[in-house]
Structure formats: C-alpha cells, structure tokens
Amino acid sequence: MDAMEFLTLPMQTSNRLRRAQEKVASLKSLTERVTTKFGLDSEPVSHSRNMSAMQDTIILLTEAKEEEQRRQEELAAVELKVGAVLAKLSDEKLYDFMVSRYLDFMTIEAAANEVGYSYSWGRLAVERGVAEVQEILNGMESDRESEPGDSDLGDGSALRF
Q: Do residues 81 and 153 touch, judged by C-beta distance below 8 A?
C-alpha cells in the first residue's frame, strides 16, 4: 500500500460510517412510518394482522445498527494506525499539519493555517509528509519481512494491509 492510500483510509472509513449512519436514520424513519401505518401507537393489534413488514423493518434496523457499530470500530482502529505512523514523522509542525489534514479531514489551506503557515507551505508539507510516511511504511514492511510476526507501530498493535 502506498502512502496516499494509507493516509486516505480514515476518510474512506469515515465515509462508510456516514453512509451506515444515514441508513440507520432512514430505517428509523421507516419504522416510525410503519408503526403509524399499522396504528400500533393507539389501537390494539389484531392477531390476524400481518406484522411481517414491521418485523422486516426492525430486523433491517438492527442489522444497520450493527453495521454502524462495526464501522465505528473500524474507524477507530484506522485512526490509531494512521496516527501511530504520523507520530513517527521527523518534525512536530509537519505532524500537526498531517494530523489536521488526514485525521481531522481539513483542506490543505485550513491545515496549514492551523499550524500557522501558508497554503503554499501546506502543499510542500503534503509532499514532504507523504514521502516520509512512505519511508515509514516501507521500513515497517521490511521489518515485517525480516521478522516473523506483526510490524511495530510503537504501541504494540499491528499494521496489516
């Protein structure tokens, strides 16, 4: 995996989480409409009434909530891995910039302003940061190839591609 693919993992994972959250919200809305349609709020349910639509909706909602939880856990794990690699950058300002850019999802201009620099500095910082991240990832891959087991992220967790 190259550095840009690695650095964009949090954004991609965040987008998948957002879609899962939207699905949960949509299914909650559908559940409310189904409940209203069947009059479950105000009248007793007839035993002969077909409740499969409500049951199907509840099952879908439960599955969507489970998916949302998995996506939240996935995002947390990806953020930890990317953060651990960024922590190995050579310069503190570069680290702050890269965290703002790739973990806080700021634009280059906003991330550069966050650390007190210009947009042009930010463009150069992206190039420098991506190059350093690539070196770190390459070093981790060569460590993994030379030693059996997982690569070291400094916190005892493993980086898997």
A: yes
